[in-house]
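debug: dumping io for the single-chain case to check the tokenizer round-trip. Nothing else runs in this session.
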Amino acid sequence: MSTESTKKLTVPPLTTVVLAAVLVLLVGYGMLGRRWDTVSVKPIDVGPPRAANTSPSKIPAAVNTDPAKLEFDETAQDVMEAVEAERRAVARARLLELQHRADETTAYIDRLEQAIGRWSSEIEPLLANETGKFIAANPRLVDAFVKIYDDSNRASKQTPERLREVLNAAMDPVSHGLESETAAYTPDNSLQEQLDRVRRQAIDALRTYDDDTRQIQSLLAASKQTSGARPGTKTLQAAIDDIQNRAALARAQAVALAVDEERRKADIEAAAQEAERVRNEAARELQKKRLQEELKKREAQRELERMREQEKQRAHQAKIDAKRRRAADPAVQARYQPFLAKGVYRFNAYGGTARTDAKYGNRYPQPASYSRLQNAGVLNNVATFVKTASGKAHIHQTGQLAPRLVQPDNDGYAGAGFSNDRPKWNWYPQGERGWKQAEAMYREFLELAPIWVETGKLLR
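debug: decoded output
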């Protein structure tokens, strides 16, 4: 019977007993309480009063003489004893069940020992006795005998002893539990699983011996039933050795042939590899020459590009040097005195200029600031640039530096000049030619202004 079946059979009776006991106690106690409430009970004489100096430890405990209480205690005691008795009974039944399973396993182990004994007494002697010569007379039966006899899956002869040791160790606590009448030990499922494993191992080992023994006995019977069957001149062991020797010789010859074939293949492979090496060497030499030529071409190309880059840099540097020479030319600087000359007016970002005010103007004469010219809008377009340089300022300085709006002039620009105390141009562009000249001067100033900032001709 399995553990699950045992639990199904034992747990409900125990639960029923406990519930019934509780119910009996509650009902009995209620009935006794109602009965004693209606019956007058004579007081019990407990003797004279205890002296004041009497030690509490020497006073005997009062005897409970309440009939209802006594009956309640006896009922509870009976229930507890019944529960304990059933628990011991369930535990013993479980132990007996495991003991029976162990006995069955022991029977399989005994059968395994008997099967091993038959193998040792009936099968192994065939290798040397006269009976085995009947099998030795038929090479086909000898081959079949060897395959069965050398079965690596057959259990060892020490298997019964090992299984019995494991079984005894597992059943030791069960045996102690059965020997005690008061023990309530109930093993868990792991013990039954262990017993099942030992049982399966015993059955499997037994099957290997039974099957192999039965097959060899069939071979022996077949060797005797053949028409004109006679025992061989050699023992079964000698016949096996002959077959194995022939097989070993055949394998050796096959190995020798295989070695010769591998050597032949190796020679062919070596020749092929040598030819491939020669081809690869020639290809590498050719590739090396091509690579050298390619490297020469690349080096020549890099040299050409380097020379071109140097030429470009020299041309660029020449432009820079020419630009610097032009920026240092007094004649060129003279054209832009409205900005390069020193003055106290300082262009600002509010759209006007400041003169001598400590907050807005320069404290001493100095060139204009290139960044302030940009931020104020003087360099936004050629018209603003030309009007500021020519002194045609339509934006008047006020206390709050607020520009006054003006109407567009004859050139279509709405007043773009700034006040400036530095030298002014004595001309103003007229017509297309004049404005082209002004545009050229505007572009030239933008080109040379960064150099003048570097040399200090303009403030940053």
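debug: round-trip ok. Residues 1-12, 27-62, 395-407 have pLDDT under 50 and may be disordered.
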